[in-house]
């Protein structure tokens, strides 16, 4: 049995287009698809560079083919249309049955959502790092700054906005079949959890993900919004990539805990948004420091400062830290997020400061990247 890790290890010895960065770390590669004794990988490129990339493809194919048990290796080049170009993405080279073929053919629907000025994705490289808690409190903090805000809970694996906002009613369906989102503390909330039973085990296939997302985005009466915060599904798989490709995002906020493993995943998140040309507005370190409620002692359970360091390393802005605190969990569980239940407290202040940084980056309208994208380990 060939494993994905074996393939990635073999490809790590192949330098990417800059001649230095190992191919798997360039952010240009699709996931590895293994079908019996055959391995497929797609590499993204601009059509104009397709010819120059051919030697790289050959080197990658040879590296995979040299693995024991591999009967065939196909490394395909795929090209995607630039955002706003409107055209269908075209394969840069016959991509065979490689995973890139279907991805390229999936196309994009990045048309703006009328009335919505900025759409910001809150994403994480893996689950359980507090992405939804952060998205919810940030949406409320942005509203606290006087902005008109919506929150779209697109976490198909675990929609949590109904719980976090304490909403039990379903959205109203209007005559034109548009959904009217419930409003809590000034924030319009729409959740995939309103449309499907959160307890039901659903296997989300690509087209279902997209139609659900487009419905949440475009068949909801959002009205005029300054910011629509999208709580993305955790991870960097195909569903996430499709979403990132198909929502007209102004930028992405990556939530991570300070642990090394979470940071590696966060790095993948940054690479994913790079891949689809969405500016990373910054990184938030969640569960940063634990302050014992009994004795006030500060301890760094998951380490501390890792996300800041990682953000610097990958050239993304660091937006701030949220401590690990019982109050944040309890208020979330109770459906009264800490920004609302303790607006004068230190946790609300942390979310507000991050919200301000996001708002000013959105106002500046610039890609927040500070450093080159190429990372050399
Ligand atoms: P994700 O969306 O990344 O899966 P959640 O936002 O659902 O994560 O958070 C996972 C759990 O961690 C929840 O029980 C939540 O209340 C808790 N949590 C999130 N952030 C914090 C924090 N800063 N301090 C304490 N608990 C937190």
UniProtKB/TrEMBL annotation:
Domain MIP18 family-like: 4-75
Positions bound to ATP: 125-132
Cofactor section: [4Fe-4S] cluster
GO biological process, one term: mitochondrial respiratory chain complex I assembly
Domain of life (superkingdom): Bacteria
PROSITE patterns hit by this protein: MRP
Keywords: 4Fe-4S, ATP-binding, Hydrolase, Iron, Iron-sulfur, Metal-binding, Nucleotide-binding, Transit peptide
Ranges in a coiled coil: none
One matching Pfam family: ParA
Region (Disordered): 85-107
Record GO terms (molecular function): 4 iron, 4 sulfur cluster binding; ATP binding; ATP hydrolysis activity; ATP-dependent FeS chaperone activity; metal ion binding
Record function comment: Binds and transfers iron-sulfur (Fe-S) clusters to target apoproteins. Can hydrolyze ATP.
Quaternary state and interactors: Homodimer.
Entry's family note: In the C-terminal section; belongs to the Mrp/NBP35 ATP-binding proteins family.
Cross-referenced HAMAP family: Mrp_NBP35 (MF_02040)
Name assigned to this protein: Iron-sulfur cluster carrier protein
């Amino acid at each position: 049995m060939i494993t994905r890790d074996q393939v990635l290890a073999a490809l790590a010895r192949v330098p990417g287009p800059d001649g230095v960065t190992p191919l798997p770390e360039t952010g240009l590669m699709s996931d590895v698809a293994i079908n019996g004794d055959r391995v497929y990988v797609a590499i993204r490129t601009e059509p104009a560079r397709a010819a120059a990339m051919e030697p790289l493809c050959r080197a990658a194919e040879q590296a995979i083919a040299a693995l024991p048990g591999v009967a065939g290796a196909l490394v395909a080049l795929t090209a995607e249309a630039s955002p706003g170009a409107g055209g269908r993405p075209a394969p840069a080279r016959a991509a065979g049955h490689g995973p890139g073929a279907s991805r390229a053919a999936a196309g994009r629907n990045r048309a703006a959502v009328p009335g919505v000025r900025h759409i910001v994705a809150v994403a994480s490289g893996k689950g359980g790092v507090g992405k939804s808690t952060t998205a919810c409190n940030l949406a409320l903090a942005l509203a606290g700054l006087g902005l008109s805000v919506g929150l779209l809970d697109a976490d198909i694996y675990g929609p949590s906005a109904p719980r976090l906002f304490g909403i039990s009613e379903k959205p109203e369906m209007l005559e034109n079949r548009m959904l009217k989102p419930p409003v809590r503390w000034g924030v319009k909330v729409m959740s995939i959890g309103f449309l499907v039973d959160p307890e039901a085990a659903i296997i989300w296939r690509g087209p279902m993900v997209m139609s659900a997302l487009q419905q949440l985005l475009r068949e909801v009466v959002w009205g005029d919004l300054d910011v629509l915060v999208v709580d993305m599904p955790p991870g960097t798989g195909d569903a996430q990539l499709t979403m990132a490709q198909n929502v007209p995002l102004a930028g992405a906020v990556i939530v991570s805990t300070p642990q090394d493993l979470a940071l590696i995943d966060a790095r993948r998140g940054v690479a994913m948004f790079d891949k689809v040309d969405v500016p990373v507005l910054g990184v938030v370190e969640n569960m940063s420091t634990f302050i014992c409620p009994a004795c006030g002692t500060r301890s760094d359970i998951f380490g501390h400062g890792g996300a800041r360091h990682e953000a610097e390393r990958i050239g993304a802005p660091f937006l701030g830290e949220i401590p690990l605190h019982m109050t944040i969990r309890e208020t979330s569980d109770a459906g009264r997020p800490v920004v609302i239940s303790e607006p004068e407290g230190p946790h609300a202040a942390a979310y507000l400061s991050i919200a301000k940084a996001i708002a000013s980056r959105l106002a500046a309208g610039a890609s927040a990247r500070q450093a080159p994208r190429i990372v050399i380990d």
